[in-house]
Design brief:
Layout lengths: L7 H4 L6 E8 L2 E8 L5 E6 L20 E6 L18 H15 L4 E6 L1 H12 L4 E7 L12 H17 L10 H11 L5 H11 E4 L2 E4 L15 H9 L4 E9 L1 H4 L3 H16 L3 E8 L2 H4 L1 H17 L1 E3 L5 E3 L1
Parallel strand pairs: 3-4, 3-5, 5-6, 6-9, 9-10
Antiparallel strand pairs: 1-2, 2-4, 7-8, 11-12
Helix pairs in contact: 2-3, 5-6, 7-9
Length: 324
């Protein structure tokens, strides 16, 4: 269990300079933002489904100034390029994108801060490349999203059918909104967002066009994810994670969105597995976007975790870490 840092502002920084990131990929570019010193301990920040790297605008300024934070717009989100026609958005494809980005950044070992879907991508990456991840913070995420094995065929079939139907439709011009109407639409679709949080996300979630703005994200992110894993596979992947893990769950967050009893059973077993491996699981007051709406709630926990698991160690010549 980690200790809450009562004076976390002493460990953290105020406003930090931001710079833009662009990493070339075979179909275009992955965009994002960078905070912190060039020689800071690297932390990769991964947002949730249909969000963008603006999801971390309010939290990162409260985190340790000794780190270098790179927050991505995942493919199809924010200002990043959409995947080529005919290609699905899946967790494994996001994992490949992460490897492309860290290769470009020449990061051999780093930490990950992931919210919701970003936490699931973080979990999969940490399991597949355990030697590269030093610490992992999952914000209202369990690191994996298991599917009942009996439901997999139906879900995969639906995802394939939806993609084929999407491709048969004539290409539509995106609906043009005024900025005010775009804010209204985002808030209606995401009741856990405050108006201020909506403005943070729309900085990169809109593109200016003649007559107004359009949403920048790819409509295909709404299709069913066809790359599914079972609870057994999720637990096996979880067992391969070598990084220190902090799971931060909101009391009114992701679990409240679960409709099926089996989903709650899966989350319970995943949390039990984290605890069994001596990882930290902490609940905080708030909803699914608490890290963006009320960053001061989670910042002390994330600060203390990074301080104790990352900043208290030194990087060796071989890229690994050693405790100070």
């Amino acid at each position: 269990m980690i200790r809450v840092c009562k004076n976390f502002r002493n460990l953290c920084t105020g406003p930090m300079k931001q710079t833009e990131l662009s990493v070339p990929v075979p179909w275009g570019e992955i965009r994002g933002k960078i905070w912190g010193p060039e020689n800071g301990r690297p932390v990769l920040c991964l947002h949730g489904w249909a969000d963008n790297c603006g999801s971390f605008n309010t939290l990162i300024p409260l985190l340790p100034k000794e780190c270098r934070y790179v927050a991505l717009d995942l493919a199809g989100h924010g200002l990043s390029s959409h995947r080529p026609p005919g290609v699905f958005y899946t967790f494994p494809s996001y994992v490949i994108d992460i490897q492309r980005v860290v290769d470009t950044l020449r990061w051999r070992r780093f930490s990950i801060l992931g919210h919701s879907m970003g936490g699931n991508i973080a979990g999969m990456f940490s399991a597949l490349f355990p030697e590269m991840v030093e610490a992992c913070v999952m914000l209202d995420s369990y690191g994996f999203l298991p599917t009942d094995a009996k439901e997999m065929a139906k879900i995969m079939r639906q995802g394939i059918d939806d993609m084929l139907q999407f491709e048969k439709k004539p290409e539509k011009t995106k609906r043009v909104y005024s900025y005010e109407k775009a804010v209204e639409r985002l808030l209606a679709a995401n009741p856990t967002l405050t108006e201020a949080s909506a403005h943070n996300l729309l900085e990169r979630g809109l593109v200016q066009v003649e007559g107004g703005v359009v949403f920048s994200r790819d409509f295909r992110i709404n299709l069913k994810n066809i790359a599914r894993i079972s609870l057994e596979q999720s637990l096996e992947m979880l067992s391969r994670i070598q990084a220190s893990v902090l799971v931060l769950l909101a009391n009114e967050g992701f679990e409240k969105m679960f409709a099926e009893p089996d989903q709650k059973k899966f989350s319970s077993e995943l949390l039990q597995a984290y605890r069994h491996k001596n990882h930290s699981v902490v609940k905080v007051p708030g909803d699914h976007h608490v890290h963006l709406n009320n960053p001061e709630v989670v910042a002390p926990l994330v600060c203390e975790f990074l301080q104790s698991k990352v900043l208290s160690s030194t990087v060796r010549d071989d890229g690994l870490t050693a405790n100070l």
